[in-house]
Amino acid sequence: MLELELKNTGDHEKQPRGPLGGLLLAASEAFAMAGGIIAIALVVMSIVSIVGRKLFAVVVPGDLELMQMGMAVAIAAFLPYCQMNDGHVRVDLFTNKLSVRTRALLESFAAFLLAFSAALIAWRTYVGAVSSYESGETSLMLGWPIWYSVAAIVPSFVLLVLTGLYVAARKFSVFKPCWTRRAGTPSAAGRARHEGDLVAHSMKGSKS
After folding, report:
1. Mean pLDDT over all residues of the chain?
2. Which domain holds residue 35?
3. Residue 90 in domain
4. Which of 48, 115, 122, 155 to pair with 186, CA 20 to 30 A apart?
5. From CA 202, how far away is CA 123, in angstroms rounded?
6. Looking at the domain assignment, is residue 97 inside a domain?
């Protein structure tokens, strides 16, 4: 009765997003685009530095430091988009034979664990950025403040927390019979309303 049309609970296109989901997806796409631009810029810089070293004995000053700091920011920016689109690598050798509802429960729990881990990382990264700012720590070659790159990672993990909670609530909603009509046909309006309630409840629970 509650199988709905979700033959594969990992297929995000078959699950409703609602206004909150659309907002989180748009924010995740913007972060991913920014991360992509940073990554491309770093690759170009690396090529210029390598070619310059081989042909002209000239390198981009602090190229290794720029690569280390920039790629950390870029990779963190990709994570929320990956979460919103169920893009994480999963090993489903044993779970494929489980029911849709059981898989949804496991995936919901996994998304919640990811959100919890992301919250811890965001918190400790913020603490690290503040500590680096107060100590005046700088990079060895360029003398740039370290806290710049550390602090730039925090927004990505905050967004990852929100997307993790949203996905956890969306997966868990497969259990809710109020999404179906008496004939067993899912109601889009009911799903959207219930989706918003679940996300709001999940976010309130994470703050308490």
Report:
1. 80
2. 19-207
3. yes
4. 115
5. 19
6. yes
